[in-house]
Fold this sequence. Notes:
The complex is a heterodimer of chains A (297) and B (525). Chain A has eleven helices and no strands. Chain A has 297 residues and is mostly helical. Chain A has a single domain (79-294), classed as MetI-like (MetI-like fold). The longest helix of chain A has 37 residues, at 87-123. Chain B is of the alpha+beta class. Chain B contains 17 helices and 20 strands. Chain B has helices spanning 11-19, 50-59, 107-120, 124-127, 152-155, 166-169, 229-238, 250-257, 290-299, 302-309, 339-348, 371-385, 399-407, 424-427, 429-432, 452-461, 467-484, and strands spanning 30-35, 64-66, 72-74, 77-82, 88-93, 130-137, 140-145, 191-197, 201-206, 220-225, 243-247, 262-265, 274-280, 360-365, 389-394, 413-419, 487-492, 496-500, 504-505, 523-524. Chain B has a seven-stranded mixed beta sheet, sandwiched between helices. In chain B, strands 15-14-16-13-17 form a five-stranded mixed beta sheet, sandwiched between helices. Chain B has a four-stranded antiparallel beta sheet with strand order 4-5-7-6, covered by helices on one side. In chain B, β4 (77-82) and β5 form a beta hairpin.
Amino acid sequence: MTDRPATAPESGPETVRIERPVVEFLRMYVRNWAAVAGFIVFAAIVFAALFAPVILAVDPFEMVRMHFTPPGHDSYVLGTDNLGRDMLTAIVYGARATLVVGGSAAGLTIVIGLTIGSLAGYYRGWVDEVLMRITEFFQVLPPLLLAMVLVALFEPTLPTVAIAIGVVTWTGVARLARAEFMRIRELEFVKAARSIGSRDRRIIWRVILPNALPPLIVNAALTCGIAILFEAALSFLGLSDPNVMSWGKIIGDNRDYLLDAPWTVTIPGVAIFLTVLAVSLIGDGLNDAFNPRLRER
Amino acid sequence: MKKFLVALSSAAVALAAAAASAEEPKRGGTLTFSYRIIAGHFNPAIASGTPTGIPGTQLFAALLRFDDQWNPKPYLAESWDISDDGLKVTVKLRDNARFHDGKPITSEDVKFSIETYQQHHPFKPMYAPVKSIDTPDPLTAVFNLSNPHPAILLAFSSQLGVVIPKHVYGNTDNIRQHPQNSQDVVGSGPFKLKEFKPGEYIIMERNEDYFLEGKPYIDRIVYKKIAENTSRVIALEKGDVDLTAFESDAPVLDRLKKNEHLTLTPDGYSAIGPLEWLAFNTKRKPFDDKRVRQAIAYAIDKEFILKVLYGGYAQRSLGPIHPGSVFAPKDVNPYDYDVEKAKALLDEAGYKPDSDGIRIRTTLDYIPAGGTWKRKTEFVKAQLKKVGIDVTIKASADFRAWIKTVSNHEFDMTMDSVFNWGDPVIGVHRTYQSTNIRPGVPWHNTQQFQNAEVDAVMEEAGKELDRDKRAALYGEMQKLVVDEAPIAYLHTSPYHTVFNHERIGNAPVDSIWGVCSPWDEVYIR
């Protein structure tokens, strides 16, 4: 499929094929079947999360039947949990919390990491020293413990959990961004931009950043997976918003009954696994698609 | 009716009778006890709480002890007498009792101890009626009361009435900081403190000069802190631990029950009387309306909580007093699960459903002490949704944060657990007295419940010495309170004592105080 571009309307037979970057990127991504599968799974989860109330017009906290109804019994495809709540509803609604926390924590990671990393990498010198010491400070703290303290300190609500995860996972992005900025700021086109008198802000945002983005986007996808796992771990430890159903919370609520009702723990576990896997595959796909060395293979 | 004017001639006879069992107790051996928590010190005169009380009652003897039928028995006191007007309590001490350092126990020590309780112990009403203590001779103490005090004999028992040596603890201005509260403890109980490693373990050894002949049977008690449920369960199963108490998690109890070497028993908690309930802030809307409170009491399926969340280990409780007490509520409204009735009451109170079907939006706090509390809270949230009450659960960061919220009345509804502590005067009045609304203090009348009639009945019951008359008064008080519903009563805490019956004889479960009483009858098989 490499010999025919997807869109090239004006191109005659003799014209050199020049693709728009987005199209080329998509073509590269689609070539990786695992990444496509990851995307499809992730899209399904997002769809479920978005339309949860339409798909299942039930309150996930509603007790519908005897507790620990096994999967497949009556119309309860995934059975019920320790309070007799429908597992299917809980999983579908749980996707919302999981994705919101995962997404916003990843977003926060990017914002903090990119800001600190780009300033450190661009200005270097004492700015770099100070910001990197701060980064190291956060790096040496055990992340799960710090997140637990933060959530425990403030009330465990969805935003606090997202913020806590963001606060403990941004250091990787900061170091990555710093390295990219240090590399790119020495390249010819940046020097050119500087020679025509561009201000720092313009150079950082318009000149360097677009070129530093690809690895950061890949990293963001992976961070999203990590954030989902973090949310699950916190919920498992009981540090979750008790008013919101999430997959980690389902596991945490039912872990005492693992031997009596294994499905109550395994089903949300599988959901978490699939989501994190999907996100990682997407990250891989993005990485390949961004990599110019893989283009003409 | 059993009069409190008891004067038993011989202590030895009673104790021998209590100890009678099929098997002859053996001397020797080490008993390993494990608990979630280890206290910082073991002086029960200045602190409440079972972590202090369990070792505290081994190290310090009290004036009296109680059997499992709420009958007082001689301990340090040989006999006692309450005057007819109830204003004078005379206690005769036994003459052979000595502290661990060999000094005899005198009425001066009794006076000093009770005064220490009055000054430093958190349970203020317990010794509040004691105006003064006379010591006419070294073995007689006379308590002069400002009003008859039916709880005084109970207060003389277990961790509420230990006798501490004046010559040791009287030499300081600040007994709270006394080093001998935790090291080189000088008591008079069946065991002496041998070693204490803060946060880890306590080793106690037999007091060879114990005033009860031939006791205790065991040579040594090792009190080991094992905070984690699973580790404690495994230690019990392996036989590393012989005895644990206050076990309450259904999965833990289920697992231990399957072990043929272990016995589980709910006995020994009737004095502590632990209750769990849903409390309302009656000064806040909409809980200022009794119909709303009643509606919520009806809307909760109590049987489900007992059966599913507590695996059948907890017991239903219907009112302010624990079902194990002689004053347990009778003929009160049980608020059996009834959704329609709940809705009707809310309609009547004027809380009609809006377009989303919601009548009331409110919040619910809970004690952050593990999975079961949280599950119960979520269950109540789901239950109240069915009658149109939208509940947002508020999770407190930690135990202190929850105490702060609730004790300062910054809540709408909260899950709570309150102990009866043996007598209603000590553990029940505090929750309902309109005079006991004390912001910042945990477990006062946090509901801010004010009812003159209830106040009056409690006042009377608190001075009545006749047990039957008192029971009638508390019956009346509980009917009033349950109808007013400042609290939706749910169940008892499912506390269980677990012991290895192949190793231990006479496990400390046959008194109202359970493990918070001297283990001088316990022996190793």
